[in-house]
Design goal:
mainly alpha; 2 helices; 0% strand
Length: 68
């Protein structure tokens, strides 16, 4: 396993974690915790940001570029 593969696995798991946390906070908001909504939004924004970064890593594949 290369370092890039490990990086992709870790970023993917972070995206999944942020999505699950955002859903958990939405559930908390629906059960009466008003502070859960901003936490849910921040977690969703982090998930989107990391997903965009992961997509960039997949498209550019630094390990597949030929040496100069």
């Amino acid at each position: 396993m290369t370092l890039l593969t490990a990086h992709k696995i870790l970023i993917s798991s972070a995206v999944a974690l942020f999505v699950l946390y955002a859903l958990s906070e939405v559930r908390n908001y629906l059960h009466g915790d008003p502070g859960a909504l901003p936490r849910s939004g921040l977690s969703a924004a982090a998930a989107v940001g990391l997903a965009v970064y992961l997509r960039w890593v997949w498209v550019h594949r630094p390990s597949a570029t030929p040496p100069r």
